[in-house]
Design a protein that fits this description.
By secondary structure, this protein is an alpha/beta fold. It has 14 helices and eleven strands. It has a single domain, classed as Thiolase/Chalcone synthase (Peroxisomal Thiolase, Chain A, domain 1), CATH 3.40.47.10. The strands form two sheets. It has a nine-stranded mixed β-sheet with strand order 3-2-4-7-1-8-11-10-9, with helices on both faces. A two-stranded antiparallel sheet has the order 5-6. The longest helix has 17 residues. The structure holds coenzyme A. Coenzyme A binds next to helix 5 and helix 7.
């Protein structure tokens, strides 16, 4: 990016079950909160970047750009981004780049998803559209199924098993206990994970993120605008990267590497002028426990095969060397897919500026990274956030 993009405000609805509320209502709430947090008027928004994945399936709603602008109470040009579970990560990226380029001084970014109005079976079908329809979906592959293939292959190549993965779920549930926005605010033990009903071997219930409703938003501004209007912007986006990979798992060179994330991370780190070792705290896309492990390895925090032990060894817990998913992650905070990427931005912004319930765990942190993946990481957006000097 040519220059840093200050985050003037963030907002997020509680994640969980609210099937009676539409995605547009949820986004209206998150956007209003972000706009109020920024201390601007809605009329100041010059462009809207909105992420959603399954609105046509869940609500029969397409043409969601103007819908999102209307819900936010603004009349600015508005575009919807779909990159499956990375939809609002992509929206944040394009909003940040528009501001960095000087195309807009104030961008509203975010996303929403309504999922629990569907049965689990229908929600699973809707999510499967993010996989390869010609081969994977016809063969009956669902997302728990696809990630369980990746987990089994990981165990085959590097060793380890369900017990190591369970520590990822235990850590993320623990982190969510005090987070009032999280879907599950309760701690669990390794035994709970191992004894839970099987979803798709090796995964039990606690290896999976849940179906969730929710929305997230952020107001990004130019440095000049922030200065002219006296906005408080302690945190800025300083780097962004995006990567793609084959849509289907069977077309990949490896099922235990996620090059889309590696490329996104390398670009984001280069953009910000940092190295993985500079990162103090991370929010990564743990849609399934194995996904957190693959994310940490693809971002260069661990060598291939070494990420599995990180949670068990306490390296990624709240008091560890690199706290990961202090929000509770997708596992415990919830995963309304189109809202997740910008929710990571909202949570990370609060963690870094000191008003998150878990901020004390990272009181001296200056650099945070978010990793937001689509499908089986066929797409990925990585964002670097830094405390402004
Ligand atoms: N973790 C912890 N608890 C969960 C949970 C999860 N992932 N999912 C559901 N629960 C709890 C519910 O809160 C409920 O508890 P309660 O009885 O105390 O109210 C109970 O389990 C049953 O919930 P229900 O919604 O009926 O579960 P389900 O069996 O229909 O669905 C999954 C569970 C894991 C299959 C479903 O959440 C799922 O498909 N998750 C994956 C979503 C996904 O693929 N996302 C995209 C990622 S790429």
């Amino acid at each position: 990016m040519v220059r840093q993009v200050p985050i003037a405000g963030v907002g997020m609805t509680p994640f969980g079950k609210s099937p009676e509320r539409t995605a547009r209502e949820l986004f209206g709430d998150a956007a209003s909160e972000a706009i109020a947090d920024a201390g601007i008027e809605p009329a100041a928004v010059e462009e809207v970047f909105y992420g959603n994945f399954m609105g046509e399936f869940a609500e029969g709603q397409g043409h969601q750009g103007p819908m999102a602008a209307e819900a936010a109470g603004v009349t600015a040009p508005a575009t919807r981004f779909d990159s499956a579970c990375a939809s609002s990560g992509a929206a944040v990226r394009f909003g940040a780049r528009a501001v960095a380029r000087g195309d807009a001084d104030v961008a509203l970014v975010g996303g929403a998803e309504r999922m629990t109005n569907l049965s689990t079976a229908d929600g699973t079908s809707a999510l499967a559209a993010a996989a390869d329809a010609l081969w994977e979906v016809r063969a009956g592959v669902t997302f728990p199924g696809a990630y369980s293939l990746m987990a089994n292959r990981y165990f085959h190549e590097y060793g380890g098993g369900r017990e190591e993965l369970a520590h990822v779920a235990v850590k993320n549930h623990e982190n969510a206990v005090e987070n009032e926005l999280a879907q599950f605010q309760r701690s669990i033990e390794v035994e709970d994970v191992l004894e839970a009903p099987t979803v798709c071997s090796p995964f039990g219930l606690y290896d999976c993120s849940p179906m969730s409703d929710g929305a997230s938003a952020a107001v990004l501004v130019s440095e000049e605008y922030a200065e002219e209007h006296g906005l408080e912007t302690p945190v800025a986006i300083t780097g962004t990267g995006q990567g793609s990979d084959g849509l289907a798992l069977h077309d990949r060179a490896s099922m235990v590497e996620t090059p889309a994330a590696r490329r996104a991370g390398e670009r984001a780190f280069a953009d910000a002028g940092i190295e993985p070792a500079d990162v103090d705290v991370a929010e990564v896309h743990d849609c399934f426990t194995i996904a957190e492990v693959l994310a940490l390895e693809s971002l260069g925090f661990y060598e291939p095969g070494e990420g599995l032990a990180a949670a068990r060894e306490g390296e990624t817990t709240a008091d560890g060397e690199l706290p990961v998913n202090l929000s509770g992650g997708l596992k415990a905070k919830g995963h309304p897919v189109g809202a997740t990427g910008c929710a990571q931005i909202s949570e990370m912004t609060k963690l870094l500026r000191g008003d998150h319930v878990n901020s004390d765990a990272v009181a001296d942190a200056e650099v945070g990274v978010t990793h937001n993946a689509g499908g089986t990481v066929a797409s990925c957006v990585v964002t670097v956030l830094e405390v402004m000097g």
